[in-house]
Amino acid sequence: MTVGIVWFRTDLRVVDHAPLEALAGRCQRLVAVYCVDPREYAPTRWGFPRTSARRAAFVLGSVIALREELRRRGGDLVVRRGRPIDVIPALAREVGATDLAFHAEAASDERADEAAVEAAVGADGVRVHALWGHTLAPIAALPFSVRDLPGHFTAFRQQVERRVRVPAGRPAPTELPAPVRDVAPGDVPSLAELGLEGALDDPRQLTSFVPGTVAGMARMQGYIWDRDLLRIYKQTRNGLLAPDDSSKLSPWLATGALSPRTVFDAILAYEQERVRNESTYWLAFELWWRDYFRFVALQAGRTLFRRSGPRGRDRQWRWDEARFGAWCRGETGYPLVDANMQELAATGYMSNRGRQIVASFLVNDLEIDWRAGAAWFESQLLDYDPCSNWGNWAYAAGVGNDPRPNRYFDLAKQAASYDTDAAYVRHWLPALASLAPPLAHEPWRQSDVRYHARVAPLRTAERTTGLLPL
Ligand SMILES: Cc1cc2nc3c(=O)[nH]c(=O)nc-3n(C[C@H](O)[C@H](O)[C@H](O)COP(=O)(O)OP(=O)(O)OC[C@H]3O[C@@H](n4cnc5c(N)ncnc54)[C@H](O)[C@@H]3O)c2cc1C
User: H or E segment at 381?
Assistant: First the structure.
């Protein structure tokens, strides 16, 4: 009797899932497993939980959705609490596993988990299949070794665009081998059991993110096909407020409910059936960024999470709890920063433009250790992905893979370009809702407007007019 275990982590889907497909084809019994790892829910060194209630709800909702997908195909999902090294080898012994398959991850902690599990089950004679499947480019098809990964995105992209053929996504298996009898499926924990609490709804939220593949596919179908928005993606993608400014597929890509190749296939189909233009190219371009940060994480190992980053560049950082707290809560006194941070706390999402603005503010204006900002994003973002998050933060902090050493985002210029009518700040900051555009971005200019005091002067002010009076 061949018994396979498929270990799910950030690949919570059945479509385009090579480990599931591989073991469905070779095993007579199949056990799919997900570990609710206590380390994911522990407090960080910065004093807040590593996963917020909102992100936990999205991840656990995705686990429930995966279980439904597996059950629909005659399978099931076993859910266990514990670290993979404590769960998987014990489960393998319990079910008499002959094979273990999983998608290989890129970040160092996840890779360490894989190595430990692989060694433990390998010692019991289980065949291990660690398959690459989180990127557009198969790792084996890269025209360079990961050690020699180009130091900048442009060089990476030019080579992969020219030399890598992205394989089409694979369909889900229609039927799965039966699960092993007598293995309790286990329940998915509630937020309270994980020690998490907090309101999950906010009346200001404009986009709803429903976990699972069905909802992710519906979002993709609606954005690309029904509302026909891919043709203008490049013009709208930097918008801050509207639900359709960008694809908003990231939470499903991060949990793996959607495979990047499913999105890539949709882009190709749209180019064939509707239009091929700069915008259709640009969505694929962004997916290549996602790929790049995966490979950067693989190359960088633990240095991705160190203060001096993958580049080993040290710089003086401050720690100021009051200012950091004001940044997290969206109470810095700078409306464009505050609106973005309040959106993040209220919804678990923030636009790419917003992320760049608030990251620059934290590292350049407040000079606060970038790892605290990255940790806060990790806690809050529904689309949290270690490679994209820490890679982008290292980039913003000037310690990552960026040809330019200092990317400073000038708040006044950003507001004038991306929130000209102040609709975004007025939406997220009710205190400013009645102000006309220039004042809504600079409420300190009028003495009778009551708003948070500015936590620190801006560096632009230092450069141009001396310190701005607070
Ligand atoms: C400081 C900072 C932290 C970030 N943290 C994350 C994170 O934890 N998880 C995450 O998925 N993205 C992260 N990003 C990248 C980017 O902001 C989001 O992917 C994007 O805003 C998601 O919205 P969307 O799906 O509408 O993107 P779209 O513009 O529609 O892009 C489509 C997809 O391309 C990928 N993508 C786009 N931009 C980037 C990028 N700069 N880096 C990597 N992938 C990209 C995402 O998968 C995204 O869903 C971060 C960016 C910054 C500046």
Answer: none
